[in-house]
């Protein structure tokens, strides 16, 4: 049980806490259902104040020398690391992530991203272009004309983030944006914004000027809609559902805002017939990460496993054994692998998908029932077999610990199934012949393809095809995402 009183937070605007006019709302621990803290409820005036603060800070920050911006980002990384003992328990409580995931994948990546973009701030942003001899025209005299392409900040960036990795996801947006000289208004997911609010004070202590980074929070659509529609915002960077992403794109288009969208996924793990015992073990472990890593609340998860009919039952049996071996329980217990979902609403949504699969004739191989725990929003690791590509569970993102298994007969059929959803974020190929897997990757309409691994490469471009998003971030691609190109001609 929680022994300390839940803290009440304000918005972080222009380097200070600001009381919300619309009051506060409770943040709930998904495992204990206790109140973790109270977050501020933003109205349009709060968002306007945050945007005005960011706009006022833009001129000075954008003209700050890159080496000075780099030093600030490095200090932010150090401060996050130094305060990990404070941040980890709060982040774990508000997200429901297991303590192992929180310690390894929530806080350290946030520090790493600020440190990476401290280096990014001083990456060359000017590309000289070869001089061209130009004839005289009615427009201008001729001569030898030089030019350069120069990367410039976009302006004020609105960062709207998802609930699964709130701090790391926000850092992945804010760090490259600040490195390029932009200022930021952040709007974290309503379910777990508290650690993101604390980031404001951490950044101020590290020397970030007031107004360069601001945070507003709230439930409902008011804050997000106000941020997207605000004429003082030049870019929206969003991570979340495809439905919300489409609404943001439509609104942002009215003021011609730049958008960067990382949206939903329905990852396919294609197991090729040449997979030997070693590759099959790798595939089972990779697909099992859907259950074992943050209870499947990750858009890159391999939630569809496509297996040749000759190996289908073997893989089903191996996955069933894997799922049954995973301990479900309190996320603060180091032995727990599967923690709760973020909310009762998300748990109900996952259960509705499983019920729908049964109604459509699929077979629930394991899981499917609510774990016998008195408190918390838990869903058991669930494997659904005998799935056809047209079933709802094979088409829509569930965002929970659910894997669907689909058999195929030919490689062409496997590609057709893998590409047969509106999504295209992250697919996987498992094969003994990695050359064959490489060629198959070219046929997958997916922004990312993993070959015999679910590991990420931090410098690789990240983003999706189709309904999975627009644009790319990651590594130096993130600097490009948060900048505009200006041609200078002389």
UniProtKB/TrEMBL annotation:
One of the record's GO molecular function terms: aldehyde dehydrogenase (NAD+) activity
Aldehyde dehydrogenase domain sequence ranges: 17-488
Catalytic activity, EC: 1.2.1.3
Catalytic activity: an aldehyde + NAD(+) + H2O = a carboxylate + NADH + 2 H(+)
Oxidoreductase is among the record's keywords: yes
Gene3D superfamilies, sorted: Aldehyde Dehydrogenase, Chain A, domain 1, Aldehyde Dehydrogenase, Chain A, domain 2
InterPro entries referenced in this protein's UniProt entry, alphabetically: Ald_DH/histidinol_DH (IPR016161), Ald_DH_C (IPR016163), Ald_DH_CS_CYS (IPR016160), Ald_DH_N (IPR016162), Aldehyde_DH_dom (IPR015590)
Pfam families on file: Aldedh
Keywords: Oxidoreductase
PANTHER family (alphabetical): ALDEHYDE DEHYDROGENASE (PTHR42804), ALDEHYDE DEHYDROGENASE-RELATED (PTHR42804:SF1)
Family assignment from sequence similarity: Belongs to the aldehyde dehydrogenase family.
Name of the protein in question: aldehyde dehydrogenase (NAD(+))
Source organism per UniProt: Actinacidiphila oryziradicis
């Amino acid at each position: 049980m929680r022994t300390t009183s839940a803290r009440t937070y304000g918005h972080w605007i222009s380097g200070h806490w600001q009381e919300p006019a619309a009051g506060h709302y409770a943040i709930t621990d998904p495992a204990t259902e206790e109140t973790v803290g109270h977050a501020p409820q933003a109205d349009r005036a709060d968002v306007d104040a945050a945007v005005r603060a960011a706009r006022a800070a833009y001129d000075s920050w954008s003209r700050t020398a890159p080496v000075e911006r780099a030093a600030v980002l490095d200090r932010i990384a150090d401060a996050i690391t130094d305060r990990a003992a404070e941040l980890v328990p709060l982040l774990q409580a508000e997200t429901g992530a297991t303590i192992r995931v929180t310690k390894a994948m929530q806080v350290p990546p946030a520090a790493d991203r600020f440190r990476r973009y401290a280096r990014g701030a001083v990456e060359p942003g000017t590309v000289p272009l070869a001089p061209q001899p130009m004839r005289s025209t009615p427009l201008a005299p001729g001569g030898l004309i030089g030019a350069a392409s120069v990367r410039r900040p976009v302006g004020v960036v609105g960062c709207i983030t998802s609930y699964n990795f709130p701090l790391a996801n926000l850092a992945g947006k804010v760090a490259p944006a600040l490195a390029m000289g932009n200022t930021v208004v952040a709007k974290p997911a309503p379910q777990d914004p508290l650690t993101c609010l604390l980031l404001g004070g951490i950044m101020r202590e590290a020397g970030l000027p007031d107004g360069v980074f601001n945070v507003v929070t709230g439930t409902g659509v008011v804050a997000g809609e106000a941020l997207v529609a605000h004429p003082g915002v030049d870019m929206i960077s969003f991570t979340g559902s495809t439905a919300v992403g489409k609404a943001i794109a439509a609104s942002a288009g009215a003021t011609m805002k730049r958008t960067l969208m990382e949206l939903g996924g329905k990852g396919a793990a294609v197991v090729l017939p040449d997979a030997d015992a070693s590759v099959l073990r790798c595939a089972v472990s990779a697909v099992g990460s859907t259950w074992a890593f943050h209870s499947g609340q990750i858009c890159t998860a391999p939630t569809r496993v496509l297996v040749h009919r000759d190996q289908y039952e073997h893989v089903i049996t191996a996955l069933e054994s894997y799922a049954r071996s995973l301990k479900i329980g309190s996320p603060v217990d180091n032995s727990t692998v599967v923690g709760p979902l973020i909310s009762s609403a998300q748990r109900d949504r996952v259960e509705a998908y499983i019920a729908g699969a049964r109604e459509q004739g699929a077979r629930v191989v394991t899981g499917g029932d609510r774990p016998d725990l008195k408190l918390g929003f838990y869903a058991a690791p669930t494997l659904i077999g005998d799935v056809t590509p047209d079933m709802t569970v094979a088409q829509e993102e569930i965002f929970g610990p659910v894997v669907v298994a689909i058999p195929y007969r030919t490689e062409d059929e496997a590609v057709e199934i893998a590409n047969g959803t509106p999504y295209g974020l992250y697919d996987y190929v498992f094969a003994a012949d990695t050359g064959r897997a490489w060629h198959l990757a070219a046929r997958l309409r997916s922004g990312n393809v993993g070959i015999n691994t679910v590991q990420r490469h931090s410098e690789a471009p990240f983003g999706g095809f189709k309904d999975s998003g627009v644009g790319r971030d990651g590594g130096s691609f993130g600097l490009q995402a948060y900048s505009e190109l200006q041609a200078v001609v002389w």
